[in-house]
Description:
By secondary structure, this protein is α/β, with parallel strands linked by helices. The protein folds into 2 domains: 19-197, Glycogen Phosphorylase B (Rossmann fold), CATH 3.40.50; 216-397, Rossmann fold, CATH 3.40.50. 36% of the residues lie in helices and 13% in strands. It has helices at residues 16-32, 42-46, 58-74, 118-133, 148-156, 185-197, 216-230, 254-266, 280-286, 303-312, 322-329, 343-346, 386-397, and strands at residues 49-53, 79-84, 101-104, 139-142, 161-165, 176-178, 238-241, 270-273, 294-296, 315-319, 334-338, 355-359. The strands form 2 sheets. Strands 3-2-1-4-5-6 form a 6-stranded parallel sheet, with helices on both faces. Strands 9-8-7-10-11-12 form a 6-stranded parallel sheet, with helices on both faces. Strand 7, helix 8 (254-266) and strand 8 form a beta-alpha-beta unit. Helix 7 packs across helix 10 (303-312). The longest helix has 17 residues, at 16-32.
Amino acid sequence: MPAYAHPPHPDARPGGSARVRAGMMRGLARVAGGSNGRELSPEELATARILIIRPDHLGDLLFLVPAMRWLRARLPHAHIALSIGPWGKAALPALTGTYDQLIDLPFPAFERGARAGAAARWRMLGAWGKRLRAGGYNAALIARPDHWWGAMLARFANIPLRWGFDTPETTPWLTRTLPTAKEHAAAGNLRLAAALTGDHLEPAPIAHPLSFQLTPRDLGDADDLLFNIFGVDDVHPLAVIHPGSGAAIKLWKPGKWREIARRLADAGVRVLVTGGPDETALTRDVAAVPSGNVVDVGGQTSFAVLAALLHRADIVLGPDSGPLHLAVAVGTPSLHLFGPSDPVLFGPWGDPARHIVIASDWACAPCGKFDWPDLAAHNCVRDISVERVWESVEQLMGMTTNR
């Protein structure tokens, strides 16, 4: 099958800049010094003050849910603080009841808009390290494997026990490390939580599912929106197409989504095309089907109301993205298109009979690289055929759903 002429090899050694950064981390850690840490006794652990650092995006925070729920149940009397970026707050309903304190931290390199420069990043380390020291935390979990800035922050905050994954940039700042594995991100988070407590877990989506708490108001708002659009109370069968994603290289062709929408409408299925405020041109393009059963609601819903709409749907379709994982969390069958992203690591964390992955068959996929400068040459997702997608749509629509 087609492949980019010079793809990165998934198992290749880190590039030159990564090796330089890892060496710098080792040198800085030696200068900074610090204890080797120690395990907490069961008595200490039961009432420990634990800081969990996760700087990522909405989908990544949803993958943290199973571990947070397990840790809360395992340590009901511990003080659990969760530090996330302000851009991740929309995912908080999924984490309801799992933490005691929320720390809103604008992690550099994850911020929206202009990026903080190197000087600002170092100033933030000092300021936030001092602020977190006042929290008196006994232990920290760095939940993103390569998040060296978060690992440094835990060290600057003088947190004595610092658990994270064994990666070149983070290991110098940690007191305990967990070997990385070729596994789903949610499974890694569960293993990390269990490492802190000394337990052994067999991570599995059925035993440790994703979840998202829907409020009566959100469900009511979704129902009102559906009634206003279609004029009936019973809108089933209902499909949601969410064509957008955080990286342009993950996107399928709008015309192909439009063909899927047309076929669904011809089959008597009502279709909503959803998206964020910056995706309205895309959703309008996908919804340009001459049928009153295909409606564009791009940019018209909050994240919580989007979750409620996904819950009301019979099927959700889209590329690898946070909203597709949200569909899994609210229990709706889903179809996920994958190209550069690895479905083993970031696929749907749920029953594979209800959540189907269609992965590109290009030889270089998944490459794990989302910022190729020559986007037009990277058609791994866009090359997926309409027929492959439609076959899986028919499979999911023929299932007994959550209705």
